Amino acid sequence: MIDIKHITKSFGSLQVLKGIDLHIDKGEIVSIVGPSGAGKTTLLQIIGTLDKPDTGSITIDGIDVRSLSTRKLSDFRNRHIGFVFQFHQLLPEFTALENIMIPAYIAGKNTAEARQRALELLAFMGLSDRAGHKPAELSGGEKQRVAVARALVNSPAVILADEPSGSLDSRNKAELHQLFFELREKFGQTFVIVTHDEGLAAITDRTIHMKDGEIETPSAPPIATTLNSSEEEEPTL
């Protein structure tokens, strides 16, 4: 689903990413962890085509995204990638239903089609009775679920999440984390999640550790050396 080869990125004299190679399979839920300044968010932005690397290649869902024009890249992003942020980024003047519908409008869907899809997602999220409420009338957990529904409205192949549960209490965190797996089961999306939450990282299919702009390769476990019966030594008396 996502194939990244030798991605580098610098801001002025500061090299943020130093030759990243990464492959993520379709349907995987992958977490990216590491200290602040490791390059996690920059990598996520590049995967999401919100920023361009200095060097390297990126293939998402079989498409070489670096070969796309600005207009085609914008269309690809809207149709193939969904974003969930730490703070929901809902538009305060619109209802939950309307917020979810917006990306569908941008993708060219008509009102009836966008509304039907948004209502289906609200029902899946258990928020049908909140469709007409504006963000100020929703709890923190409800806002983030609406944000997830908005990310899903165009049925993207990939969901990118940057600290998605960072602003939630323990109960809502657990519910959101479980929701990712339910969504994967129902819709088959691939999830790439940047997080400092050890509990979330522990339940993902794979955890990628970053430090100083590089992916840390886990050290191999020690190889146990055992003696077979023909090599056993006589005990020393």
TrEMBL record:
The keyword Glycosyltransferase does not apply. Signal peptide: none annotated. Residues 211-237 are annotated as: Disordered. InterPro entries: AAA+_ATPase (IPR003593), ABC_transporter-like_ATP-bd (IPR003439), ABC_transporter-like_CS (IPR017871), ABC_transpr_LolD-like (IPR015854), MacB-like_ATP-bd (IPR017911), P-loop_NTPase (IPR027417). SUPFAM superfamilies: P-loop containing nucleoside triphosphate hydrolases. CDD domains: ABC_MJ0796_LolCDE_FtsE. The keyword Lipoprotein applies. PROSITE patterns: ABC_TRANSPORTER_1, ABC_TRANSPORTER_2. GO terms for biological process: lipoprotein localization to outer membrane; protein localization to outer membrane. GO terms for cellular component: plasma membrane. Residues 2-237 form the ABC transporter domain. Keywords: ATP-binding, Cell membrane, Lipoprotein, Membrane, Nucleotide-binding, Translocase, Transport. One of its GO terms (molecular function) is ATP binding. This is Lipoprotein-releasing system ATP-binding protein LolD. It comes from Segatella maculosa OT 289.
